[in-house]
Automatic annotation (TrEMBL):
This is PTS system, fructose subfamily, IIA component. The lineage of its organism: Bacteria, Fusobacteriati, Fusobacteriota, Fusobacteriia, Fusobacteriales. Gene3D superfamilies: Mannitol-specific EII, Chain A. It comes from the Bacteria. Residues 3-148 form the PTS EIIA type-2 domain.
Length: 150
């Protein structure tokens, strides 16, 4: 799982934002720091379409928006730790402080589903969540994510 994390795609997000703004910030982060997206608008639209099917707010302060798309070269993960929590229409009704955006090519179904499942399992650990939410900055967050099981 760790192989999908890239330091340049992990950020802290300051200020008050909507769910859509946070998703756009993370898509922009991918565009600015990688060559993985062939069409960022298409990817963003796919993420929003997936959200309309059902919220990817998995609860416990975490959202795991994800989508497969023709315009992605490989699986990508972007992470945003929100300094101000947002409503993500989570299953438990709690606001979200951590957004982990996952994108994958259409042909990577098995690998993509496995990654999403592994991430959900890792974030169920209360100790991991507490450490993430208490991270003071990007470097500390990177260190915590590096501790996640491979």
């Amino acid at each position: 799982m760790l192989k999908y994390f890239n330091n340049k795609l992990i950020t802290t997000i300051e200020g008050k934002h909507s769910k859509e703004e946070v998703l756009q910030i993370l898509v922009n982060l991918i565009r600015e720091n990688s060559d993985i997206l062939d069409n960022e608008t298409d990817f963003y639209d796919n993420i929003l379409a997936r959200e309309k099917v059902g919220s990817t707010g998995i609860g416990m302060g975490i959202a795991l928006p994800h989508a497969r798309c023709e315009n992605i070269k490989q699986i990508v993960v972007a992470v945003g730790l929100l300094k101000e929590s947002i409503d993500f229409n989570s299953l438990d009704g709690e606001n979200v402080k951590l957004v982990v955006l996952v994108g994958a090519p259409k042909k990577s179904t098995k690998e993509y589903l496995s990654l999403v499942s592994d991430l959900m399992r890792a974030f169920r650990n209360p100790k991991t969540r507490t450490s993430i939410f208490e991270a003071g900055d990007k470097q500390e967050l990177i260190g915590i994510l590096a501790e996640l099981k491979k």
